[in-house]
Amino acid sequence: MRHRSAKTSPLEVTVEARLAPTTKHSTVAKTLREEIISGVWTSGEQLPSEQVIAKRFGVAYMTARQAVSSLVAEGILERIARKGTFVTQGRAPVTPSSRDRFVMLIEGGKTSLDPYYLPPILEAFEQEIRSYGSELTVYDYSMAILNGLIAKDALVCCVLLSEPEILYTNLLRERGNRVYAINQCNGGGGVPFVTPDNAGGAHAAVEHLIELGHRRIGFIRGLPGNIDAGDRRHGYLRAMLEHGLEPGPVDGDNFVEACGYEVAKRMLAASDPPTAIVCASDLSAVGAMKAVAEAGLSVPRDVSVVGFGDFPLAMFLHPGLTTVRLPLAELGKTAAREMMRLAQGETVEPLVLPCDLVVRDTTSAPCFTEAKV
């Protein structure tokens, strides 16, 4: 048994406890899952009501409801309004004990994928895994751990967005799973990873603006605690300091259009507004461009704007968005290939994929020459 040091955080204690679930609802869910797998309940068949399930297992109604909800989240069951709960048609549930099983953990699982960042990663990863003749199951972190869905011999790919997911990842490795991460996994766990060079991409964006003649450059950051957002902010600050420039306003708490819009409005209302704005996402760049237009200014004549991601919308905006391209499909494909190497017992090293600047029409020299530093 591993002894916990005095420095163990409360979050680590909580997560570690979840790795050995003993809750009643997980027991009910496990039994129902095994019955579906074995054919007791067939594809498209309706399950009894949650009240009946609660009576069968001798548990409270809410316990039965939580068990059923977990199977709905997995995609094994589906709820149909005013009809009931049914075994998902055309889906062959897989048992958590399958030896060569590949698992991907994503916050929210497949049900809460954003439209731009995660789907290309997942699609490329899944295609590559299947090209080797293997299958993939995607789970939400807490759902998988609470319900004991990850076998100790499973190979687990963890998509890291924030600190709690890093903690889950390190604890899974300590438990004995072979684990690989998309995004850098800190914390001393020795988890191999592939990551985009977010800092390098933001650095390149600032360098581009400085070469055009900009000196007052603002930055619209992403979600607090988000790994990508933190790295992009670091790249922005490093580039500004390398050129002896005072960092401009740094503001924002999300990657979405509304955040970019509100932050850009504040920046443009300042007494010394920036002549260029770097955004941590293409979506916040869209919001920033709207704020510039509403202020009676023009992109890029009055204010240059740079996004991050090179999502499909970037090239269809008018003007076309200058942005930093994230190698999303390559992240998924590389992670799958490296995991196959792990499956063969090979040692894999951390990999950093470049984020290239894509120059379009939202950046130009400022309409007046700024004093050079």
Could you please describe the fold and organization of this structure?
41% of the residues lie in helices and 15% in strands. The protein is of the alpha/beta class and 373 residues long. It has helices at 10-18, 24-38, 50-57, 61-74, 118-131, 141-146, 163-175, 198-212, 227-242, 257-269, 282-294, 328-343; strands at residues 77-80, 84-87, 102-105, 136-139, 155-159, 178-182, 193-196, 217-220, 250-251, 276-279, 304-309, 322-325, 351-353, 356-358. The protein is elongated. The chain has 12 helices and 14 strands.
The CATH first-level class of the largest domain comes to Alpha Beta
Strand order of the largest sheet: 4-3-5-6-7-13
Shape assignment = elongated
**Number of structural domains:** 3
- Rg over CA atoms, rounded to whole Å, is 24 Å
Distance between the termini: 60 Å
- The structural class is alpha/beta
Secondary-structure blueprint of this entry?
Blueprint: H1 10-18, H2 24-38, H3 50-57, H4 61-74, E1 77-80, E2 84-87, E3 102-105, H5 118-131, E4 136-139, H6 141-146, E5 155-159, H7 163-175, E6 178-182, E7 193-196, H8 198-212, E8 217-220, H9 227-242, E9 250-251, H10 257-269, E10 276-279, H11 282-294, E11 304-309, E12 322-325, H12 328-343, E13 351-353, E14 356-358
Parallel strand pairs: 3-4, 3-5, 5-6, 6-7, 7-13, 8-9, 8-10, 10-11, 11-12
Antiparallel strand pairs: 1-2, 12-14
Helix pairs in contact: 1-7, 2-4, 3-4, 5-12, 8-9, 10-11
